[in-house]
Structures are given as structure tokens and as C-alpha cells.
Amino acid sequence: MRLFRLAPTAVLVLAVVAPAAAAPDPVRGEQVYGRCLACHALAYDRVGPRHCGLIGRPAGSVPGFVYSPAMKRSGIVWSERALDRFLAAPMKAMPGTAMTYDGIADAKERADLIAYLEQAGRSAECAAPPR
Amino acid sequence: MSFFSMPDPATARRLFLGRSGRVLSGAAVALLAGNHRLAAAADPATAGDAQILNTALGAELEAIAAYQLGAESKLLQKPALDLALAFQAHHKEHADLLSKTVEKLGGKPVAAKAKYDFPVAQLKAQADVLRFAAKLEQGAVSAYLGAVPLFGNRDLAKAAASILGDEAMHWAILRQVLGETPVPAAFVA
After folding, report:
1. Fewer CB near the last or first residue (10 Å), C or N of chain B?
2. Of A48, A96, A130, A129, which is closest to residue B62 (Cα–Cα)?
3. Which residues of B touch A47 (CB under 8 A)?
4. Is there a contact between A35 and B119 if contact means CB atoms under 8 Å apart?
5. Complex ipTM above 0.90?
């Protein structure tokens, strides 16, 4: 049963050489954010609402922005996890949303984008008073 | 005649504008020719299609306003000004078609806002205006790309893809004018 004796060693070797999941990269996330720029900006509302202050914000809560009924009644608070789920497939995660976008299928791209949104939320642009 | 054999940029531009007009008209004809099918399909998928088009319409209306801001800024000189006005005219055609199609689908087209919020303070030179426009066009390409797979009606997906192609050309040309690599990758996302 030499094979079984080798197995733990093989697992250990695999664990050592397998690349760790790369940390979310906000620089790459800013590039991904380019996809959002038809409808969104950080500091002001456009076709979609502003993104400053997004993390931790209840969905549908930017004053003066007209949301879809689906978004207003969603009860979501935009945590990293909630954003990740929504961005993967917005119209499946929230039927009736006005964000008619197929989604970002790549989990790493979503993580990078969310890291960028978190970082941007602490930027000078977002520190300025809302327009 | 190929774009690559144009004697000068003005001739190429005339050809480009003429061709892009014909392409959009082709998409418009395809949509309007399918009116009876669109009007007949009063189901959730149709309502979903109308919502997708209405979101796109909102973005097109904002793009029209953004190019108007650029044109009136006195920061754009010819030929960049002509380019901006030509692209704005395309967005007007897109908006007109989208609006009519939303109506055909039984929806209510969104109207242009009375006032748009643009980063005016950051626009101090021609390059700033063109870079702002390029980012809007890049976003529009991604938005249409993200919308195409969602349509229930394949004619609408085709029309959206036609608009996507037009806006990708806008983005590439604006990048070229800015001295950037006009087509930065083999795929758009």
C-alpha cells in the first residue's frame, strides 16, 4: 500500500505549489469599472445612481434617484457579498431591476470591481459633499 | 472603396458617415418591419425587452446631452467638433429608434432629463472633453454587450448589436484622436 503512504505527501506538495487565490485588485477593478460608465459615476447620479457610499448602503436609498420598484423593495444592503451576487447576474438576482445588464461572470473581476468601489468610496471625490 | 484607400481623412469621414447611416437604417428597417410581431407579443419577455430598451434609451439621451455640452463648451476645435456632432447625431438616431420601439412594445419611453449632472469642472481642454466622451462610449459598448444576450426577441438583439458596433467605432476614433491605441484589445467586455 505504498500508494496510500504517498498520498498525504502528494496532497502536501499540491497545497504548497497551488497558487493562492489572488487578492482583489482595485487597480484592475477600476478598469472593470469602465464597463459601468455608460450609466454610473462615482459622485453623481446618471442613468444609474452614484457609487460613492455604496458599500453598506441600503438598496434604493439615494435621495432623489428614481429606482425600479424591484430595487426599492429588495431589502438589500450592499455588502460585498450582496454586490457579488447581484453583479454576477443582475436580472436573475433581482427580476425587474432597471439595470438590464447580463452581469460579470468572472468572480475575480467582480472581486476586483468591488475592491475598487470600496477604495473609491474613501477617495477625495467621494469625500466631497454630494451634488 | 476601402477606408484604407481613402485619399484624405475628409473623404474617409464622408464614407464612414454614409456607411454608418446605412447600417443604422438597416437595423431600423429590421425593427420596424417586425412591428406586427413586437406589438403582438404582450408577454413578460416583451416587457423585459421594453425595460432593456428603456435603460438604453436613458443612456442615449444622456450621451446626446453630453455631446451638446462638449459642442457648446468652446473647447472643441474642428475637426474634433465635427466628429462630436456626427457622433451626437448617431446617438439621436439611436434614441429615436429606441423610443419608437419601446412604444411599439407597449412601454412608455423615458424622456430626457431637464438637467444632467456632468463633471463640468474637470473639462478644461479639448482632450478632457474627448476623454469624457470616450469613457461614455466605452461604457455604452459594455452596456449594449451586457444587454444583447438578455433580449427575448432576436431582432432586438440584432439591432442592439448594430448600435454596439457604432458606439465601438466612436470609442476607437476618440481614442485615436487622443493619441491612445484605438483598439486596445481583441475583445470588448
Report:
1. N
2. A48
3. 55, 58-59, 62
4. no
5. no
